[in-house]
Specification:
This protein is mainly alpha-helical and 298 residues long. The protein has 15 helices and no strands.
Length: 298
C-alpha cells in the first residue's frame, strides 16, 4: 500500500515542482525586463550628466573634435582650477548662494511649520476657506508677481541685496505649508492634549512636540528649499545686478559672456551641482519618508 501510494503521489509532486519552476522562471524573466527598462531609463537620464563630466575633463581642442569621444584622452583637471580661480569670483558666487540658501531654509522651516500647525490643529471660522485660498496661490506663476515685487523692493532699497530672496521665505511657502500640514495631521491628538494638560502653551506644543516629530518632513522641505534656491535663476537675475552679490547660477551664465571655453564652463557646472547631490544623499532617507508620510491623511 505504501509503495503504491508513493508511486501515485510522484506525478503530483513532479507537476507541482514544474509549476514552481515555471513560476520562478517567470519571476526571473519579469525582474530581468523591469531591471533592464529601469537601467535604460537611468542611462538616458544620466547621459547628459556623463557628457558634461566628459567635457569638464577635456582640453579645449578635444571638446570640438569630430566624431566626439566620450572618454577624454588625456584627462585634464585644469578646467576646475580655471573655473574656481579664474577671472570670475566663482567662490564668492558659491558663498553668496550658500548664505541665501541657509537663510531661506531657516525662514521656510520656521514660518511654514508655524502656519501648518495652525491649519492642522486650530479650529477657527473660515479655516478651510483660508487654506483653499493659500493652495490656490500655487497656480499663480512667479513671473506674474515679478514686476510688483521689483517695484516694492526697489522702493524700500532692497535691490542688490539678499533681502528680496530671503525675506519672502519668512512669510511662508504654500507648497511647504501643505506638506507640513499633511504631516501634522498624522500626529496623535493625545500627545498634544497631554502637553496642554501639563500646562504647555501652543508655542511650547509646537516646539517640543510637533517639531521633534516632524523631522522627516522638515528634511524634505529643507532639501526642496535648498534645491530651489540653489537653482533659481530668474529672481537673482532681476534683484541682484551687482557682480559681488550674484549667485552661482548667474556666475555660470556670466561664463558665456566672457569666455567661450566650454570645458571650463562644464567644470564650473559640475562644481555647482555637487552640494545638491551631497545633501540629497545625506538626507535621502528623511526625504523619502517625509514625502511618503506627508500624503497619508487629508
Amino acid at each position: 500500500m505504501s509503495v503504491a501510494s508513493a508511486h501515485e503521489e510522484t506525478p503530483g509532486r513532479s507537476s507541482a515542482a514544474m509549476v514552481t519552476g515555471r513560476s520562478q522562471a517567470g519571476r526571473i524573466a519579469e525582474r530581468t525586463v523591469v531591471y533592464g527598462l529601469l537601467g535604460l531609463v537611468a542611462f538616458i537620464m544620466l547621459f547628459p550628466f556623463t557628457w558634461v563630466l566628459s567635457l569638464a575633463l577635456k582640453t579645449p581642442p578635444q571638446a570640438f573634435i569630430y566624431p566626439p569621444a566620450l572618454i577624454p584622452d588625456p584627462i585634464s583637471f585644469e578646467n576646475f582650477g580655471k573655473a574656481l580661480f579664474g577671472p570670475l569670483p566663482f567662490l564668492l558666487f558659491f558663498q553668496n548662494t550658500l548664505i541665501i540658501a541657509i537663510l531661506v531654509i531657516v525662514g521656510d522651516l520656521l514660518s511654514c511649520s508655524l502656519i501648518a500647525y495652525g491649519f492642522a490643529r486650530f479650529r477657527f471660522p473660515g479655516r478651510d476657506i483660508l487654506f483653499l485660498i493659500l493652495l490656490s496661490t500655487l497656480m499663480v506663476p512667479f513671473i506674474v508677481r515679478l514686476v510688483p515685487l521689483f517695484v516694492m523692493f526697489q522702493s524700500v532699497g532692497w535691490i542688490n541685496t539678499f533681502l528680496p530672496l530671503v525675506v519672502p521665505a519668512f512669510f511662508g511657502t504654500p507648497l511647504f505649508i501643505f506638506l507640513m500640514r499633511q504631516f501634522f495631521l498624522t500626529v496623535p491628538l493625545e500627545l498634544i492634549d497631554a502637553a496642554r494638560i501639563d500646562g504647555a502653551n501652543e508655542l511650547q506644543v509646537w516646539w517640543r512636540i510637533m517639531v521633534p516629530l516632524s523631522k522627516p518632513v522638515m528634511a524634505a522641505v529643507a532639501i526642496f528649499a535648498f534645491q530651489a534656491t540653489w537653482n533659481d535663476f530668474l529672481a537673482p537675475l532681476v534683484f541682484l545686478q551687482r557682480r559681488e552679490v550674484r549667485t552661482i547660477i548667474l556666475g555660470l551664465y556670466s561664463f558665456l559672456g566672457i569666455n567661450p571655453d566650454y570645458p571650463t564652463l562644464m567644470a564650473a557646472t559640475i562644481a555647482s551641482i555637487i552640494p545638491i547631490v551631497v545633501i540629497f544623499f545625506l538626507f535621502q532617507n528623511f526625504f523619502v519618508k517625509g514625502i511618503t508620510v506627508s500624503g497619508l491623511k487629508g
